[in-house]
Model the fold of this input.
Amino acid sequence: MRKVLVTGGTGYIGSHTVIQLLNAGFEVVILDNLSNSSKGVVARIEELSGTGLDFIEGDVRDHELLRGIFAKYAFDSAIHFAGLKAVGESQEKPLKYYDNNVTGSIVLFEEMMRAGVHKLIFSSSATVYGDPGYVCYSETTPLAPINVYGRTKLIVEDTLRDLKKAEPRWQIALLRYFNPVGAHISGRIGENPFGVPNNLMPFISQVAIGSRPKLMVYGNDYATPDGTGLRDYVHVEDLVAGHVAALNTLGDANSFLTLNLGTGKPYSVLEMIGAFERTSGVKIPYEIVERRAGDLPEYYANADLAKEVLGWQARLGIDRMCADTWRWQKTNPAGYVID
Ligand code: NAD
Ligand code: UFG
Done:
């Protein structure tokens, strides 16, 4: 039985990943410090998968803790989701972000090395591309992030490229996510941001449930068809399927993968509002406000390489993204606090 350490496994993408891993027959141990997630997620993962898992509450920067975990379990691989992801906060608190995202990753890689575990999937982001001057990003698009969060991802990517050169036995996949949205079809797990959501989809769904009065649309004067920003939203279940495929593909012949995970089809903010209203039957009040600093008008993935290398392709469209988000929000108006 293949055993995987999933850091950040109670978070949004991690929790969906753990379910697919358990369903695919992997054994899973989650390490999460619960800085942006709830312990109640674990019981729901077990309920949905019908399988048990080990959950360890702790910090990925804790060398001793990690050493103990690697001594206890014979892992075959690790998927490293643990990290902080708020772009605005990263600009205000750079040390917190470099420490958590960069130091945390290095501690993990050191302890993997010590334990002889050399297979890794790392959560990177389309943010590593910055603002290349065109809108369709392939994996060869230059890397020049424009915020601290993006730079933490690039530093870890560079670290892993260097590690691979020095230690060829490592098998590594850098997966660059575009905009993950949606939730498990059961409505039992989903995105549960603490505080005011930064991202569009959780904000829309909190407006729909009535916990926020209206959505602020950041600018309608971009050079896009309806003036609002365009993004490549990808259903979390599709995104996660890319991780399972990467884990199964990593081997001697494919030992360093760098792949975009997106649909290749961008939607505007107004299109997302329209799709949410259509699938939920709930009106989303909104107001057009100033552009948000640091936002780009438009970008989306060229995801051809993931198709070629993994046979992976996003399957779920905008209506499923919205319907699944709404099912989760409607049945869990206050997130996981009921657990
Ligand atoms: P999330 O916040 O829901 O999950 C991250 C999890 O990591 C949380 O459960 C948090 O408690 C945990 N964590 C954070 N720091 C930790 C530490 N030092 N030790 C142990 N646990 C820690 O975020 P998510 O959306 O599931 O994102 C997962 C990964 O994907 C992150 O690395 C993020 O940067 C990356 N990513 C996310 C997006 C997105 O839009 N959601 C886009 C691109 C990349
Ligand atoms: N938007 C609004 N109102 C909101 C929130 C967002 O109008 O309340 C707009 C933004 O201006 C943008 C679009 O909705 O046009 C998407 O914004 P998000 O904040 O949901 O996503 P971003 O593309 O700005 O950034 C996200 C993550 C980053 C990640 C990046 C990867 O927040 O962490 O995708 O592409 F790095």
